[in-house]
């Protein structure tokens, strides 16, 4: 998705962000974005580990149902 942006595109995005938000707001926005990304990664790790735990529980304790 971001492979086609390139360095000039990133510089242009940073300049536009600087004009819109100003130099005093950019560190706050970056910090908030970083914290959000960190929280999202932790949540996805928790979900993945829960799925792995559930899958291993099913393999260890199979239930047989014969009709």
From TrEMBL:
One of the record's GO cellular component terms: TAT protein transport complex
Species whose genome carries this gene: Virgibacillus dokdonensis
Protein name: Sec-independent protein translocase protein TatA
Quaternary structure, from the entry: Forms a complex with TatC.
Annotated segments matching region Disordered: 47-67
Pfam families per the UniProt record, alphabetical: TatA_B_E
Membrane topology: Single-pass membrane protein
GO molecular function, one term: protein transmembrane transporter activity
InterPro entries on file: TatA/B/E, TatA/E
TM spans (from-to): 6-23
Main location: membrane
Source domain of life: Bacteria
Gene Ontology biological-process entries: protein transport by the Tat complex
Record key words, sorted: Cell membrane, Membrane, Protein transport, Translocation, Transmembrane, Transmembrane helix, Transport
Subcellular location: Cell membrane
HAMAP family in UniProt: TatA_E (MF_00236)
Family classification: Belongs to the TatA/E family.
Function (record text): Part of the twin-arginine translocation (Tat) system that transports large folded proteins containing a characteristic twin-arginine motif in their signal peptide across membranes. TatA could form the protein-conducting channel of the Tat system.
């Amino acid at each position: 998705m971001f492979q086609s942006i390139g360095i000039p595109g990133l510089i242009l995005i940073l300049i536009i962000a600087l004009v819109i938000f100003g130099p005093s707001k950019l560190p706050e926005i970056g910090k908030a974005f970083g914290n959000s990304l960190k929280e999202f990664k932790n949540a996805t790790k928790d979900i993945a580990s829960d799925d792995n735990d559930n899958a291993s529980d099913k393999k260890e304790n199979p239930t047989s149902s014969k009709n």
